Sequence to fold (477 residues):
Amino acid sequence: MIRVHRVIALLLALSPAVALAQEPRNVILILSDDHRYDFLGFMESAPSWLETPEMDRMAADGAHLANTFVTTSLCSPSRASILTGQYAHRHRVVDNSSGIPEGTVFFPQLLQDAGWRTAYIGKWHMGEDRDDPRPGFDHWISFQGQGVYVDPVLNIDGRRREVEGYTTDILTRFALEWLGRVRGNEAPFFLVLSHKAVHAEFVPAERHAGRYRDVEIPYPVTMPKTESNLRGQPRWVREQRNSWHGVDYAYHGQFDFDTFYRRYAETALALDESVGRVLDYVRDNGLEDNTLVIYMSDNGFSLGEHGLIDKRHAYEESIRIPMIAWGPGFVPEGVTVTDMVRNIDIAPTILELAGVEATRPIDGRSVLPALRGERMESPGELLYEYYWEHAFPHTPTTFALRGERFKYIYYHGVWDTQELFDLSNDPLERYNLIDIPEYQDTVDAMRTRLWDRLEETDGMRIPLRRGDWQACERLVP
Fold:
């Protein structure tokens, strides 16, 4: 059980008896895919049968950053935001088909220039038709696009070969092998272990298949098609229920909802084991005193809320992600950090830890004090953006501001209702307040601040991209 006590955490962080004199010199970033923020065994809102013992251990021995968000809930844009510290409208990797604009600088390039040893192992996805090594990494292992769960074809430092086995296990093994080669050197290291799991369509490891076949699925209260759930809901949300990303026709009938849910949970089991193997390696090899391990997802994931599955939209399950930081002697044990953290904050945080200055504009900020257990000033409202994709046209371009109490959602290019939620009194986002007279001042003010934020960060552009296929054209078994 995680202890939540800010005062104690701060005292621990500042006490020389328990805190290290120096900050960690090495960083391991474990990045998963589509892992929703509350799908962790220690979370009260998680299913009672969910097993994530290694992530639970990581949180118990480190810090759970419980208020972490992405600024775009989609694989490629979010990964680009993690590696640049920029909003999608600034780095321009706006969807999963976008290439990387010329002149883009990812922060590992700066670490490499400063003498760090760097490695990227796993899903890259930006410019999904390519798997070749990218600048900034001494060692590279990746695959094209989404990859596969079994027997992947990997590009290993420029050479492709098929590797037999389950992809989550394979990537973990390669990561540990690289750590074994560099751990004895004096130069610090930065490793990204980037998993395919738990991205659809879900394929659990053979040893985990069927683990949850008999469990009871906890259907969200906003999932049923009832009058109260549909009241105030945008038309596009109602219509998406019967689409690729809706509960009534998930992946165009490839899964019924219960099977979809169980396979998602089973696929997460190997991911959890991977986290445990990394932590064990760090401890067993004497690296725990100078290594910071961060676990996070590239975006959230809906499991039936509002009748939706997948991500992209601005509801909480889509934009919130799990994040855990572990670093004995540096990160206080068993604390919950409630400060807002965003994916655009990762780059400046690691750069500050490394003592390296950014060479391009950064929209995020360092949250290094929060990892130490210190309080930080609020970054203000979260700016969220998602741009319409030709491949999945059932979700419109979406902008949102998410504050501590209210969330305002604006849909661009569709004649539909906007949304306002009072998250303090309505955390499940059941009651759209957009047309309630008492809240019109709040709506007007948040809309103005939304446009102001976009203007300030050069975000007043809607990208148009060529499309080649749509989800409805996919063949399913």
About this structure: Residues 257-284 form the longest helix (28 residues).
